[in-house]
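=== Per-residue structure ===
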Amino acid sequence: MKLWPHGMYLVHGKPQEAAPAGVSEAEARRGTIAYGILEAHNTSGDMDDLRMKFDSMTSHDITYVGIIQTARASGMERFPLPYVMTNCHNSLCAVGGTINEDDHQFALSAAHKYGGIYVPPNMAVIHSYNREMMAGCGRMILGSDSHTRYGALGTMAVGEGGGELAKQLVGRTYDMARPGVVAVYLTGRPGPGVGPHDVALALVGATYANGYVKNKVMEFIGPGVANLSADYRNGIDVMTTETTCWSSIWQTDEVTRDYFEVHGRPEAYKPLAPADVAYYDGCIELDLSTVECMIALPMHPSYAYPIRELKANAQDILHEIETRANEQLGGKVRMDLVSKVQPDGRIYVEQGVVAGCSGGTYENICAVAEILRGKSCGNGAFKFSVYPDSMPTYLELVKNGAVADIVTAGGIFRECFCGPCFGAGDTPANGEFSIRHTTRNFPNREGSKPGEGQISAVALMDARSIAATAANGGYLTAASEVCDREPAAPAYHFDQGVYEKRVYNGWGRPEPDYRLKFGPNIKDWPEQPALSDDLLVKIVSYITDPVTTTDELIPSGETSSFRSNPLRLAEFTLSRKDPAYVPAAKAVQALDAARRSGELPAEVAAVYAELGKLGYAPDPAATNIGSAIFANKPGDGSAREQAASCQRVLGGAANFACEYATKRYRSNCINWGMLPFLLDTPNVLEKGDYVFLPGVRAALLNAAENIEAVAVKPDGGIVRFTVRLGDMTGAERQILADGCLINYYKNH
């Protein structure tokens, strides 16, 4: 794999360093597939300052209640574009009593009232339904799940926080500067047993840490694309999220055309390809024949190694990985991977899972069935589960015998459910090592609770290698060790009647008098204050990890059952990373409540006394007091807005960071009224500091490059420094000034 250190011109399908004579870089930039799609969806008339409207949207049952509640509070009367609500994340009704199914019924009633599309529980995982029924060449889809990626089907899809979807629902636009575009130039053909997850993990490993594609579009082109099936492309594409790119798009061809024809939507196809001359901001050249069977070790998809290399150096690599993991876990519990190396040198794992939008596709499961046919998973500690991505896929796997092959080998075949991907299904036992064809292996995302002494380890692998491991009784095995060819999948036949009989499609037919169905756990968003002229915040958590994921900010899994109750969900904020955060944030919230009632708490009075020595005279009655956190690089991972809204519900007013891991997390902070400060000198802050920001509202609205800040230490020491907010649109600045997106819509 080669990453170009500079831009690249594609000239008649070939990468080269320089433009042809007479062609400018600006002209060549218009030649990418991405540019044409962005231009077609931009309403501003200025391609450097995009104001986009999408063709459709999608959410699952962790996010849609909050989005609809935000849009309702902002004046929405009907869905102005097709909005798909799937129910694939919280389908375990026993968790939290009736609350999960209550939310599902809320969504069905909203689909009636506002004219939406409701996909019942266990019918399809979110991205599979959108691939099958909503994607189309040249379209754009906005989703509230970070893995909203349909680029392999010619659709630019974007995963964002709920606030961005609410904007579309009230007729506003998605605003950003035009992103850069990086070519992924594919050649060659994958070797036997090498699956889409292997290619994806190789790409993530090569691009995540160096930020090569961060907030850019990955555009897949080159002769190697033709050597990949549609399922294979989809499996690579959905993992582009883990590179931190903004979106993805692929050139289309007869394979794409056949996909849409099989799914009964031939009109969704059109050819997409770069122009004869196109300029890219970077280029990743990848010969698919060089990709090996891969494994991404705990606790990130970018910790990718060839399985061959891991097996040859098991003790050293696993020791390095467990040491890094234990540093990240902060001593709460200890991960033990080295003990998985057996006396004969083999590596033993206790669980294998193939699931969801990346693993549970038709061809992946057919490959699993072929590798397992006539074999046995054994009756030891190892267990194996398969989750299909949709009921049409499930039906075809029943018809062709794949389900029987897997079950006969000792595997468990389950329903369409995203649970294993986010900690609500097949949580391993304490100390176990799980290999999964899912999208992420972040800390505790599989469902363990370090605060209660629990830890398990998750590695990502392709379904083919997981099946080879299962056939070997749990001893880690690359599919290339047992496959002399790519396992063959019988022709796929899509039965749309499965959806027609169960999915409610009310698009274009809203029923305004239809009553929304609320459950006792569905609560409105609490009111949030506007930003005061000056602001005082207390640092209640200080996180020094290189990256902080959204799963650490607000855990996934059973926690997310409370996603429709903002106050109750907020109780879990940072619960696995910093259990002291919630009581500390509530204590600051109580200080602000006292201030608003006319009191001046002694703790705050002492801070103001120190500030007075420097000539500052904040008005206690008019200066909001909020909590804040410092983290080096927060926001990698999920698009869930709760990573920000939970802080805000607890009185959070700001975050301080050296860098924000993703645009979507920073947007969530903005939409929930939390100032996303950038800090060049993190050592000026520590936990317990009060930070005074004089004139912050004016500085925000006037787009000041630097904003004055004063830290008052617990011992009374004072440090002056500056912070930045970075580039923002005028609307984003006003949202922060108004206190949150809901306030912004009420005021404007």
Notes: The CA atoms of residues 304 and 671 lie 34 Å apart. Residues 99-114 form the longest helix (16 residues). The chain has a mean pLDDT of 95.
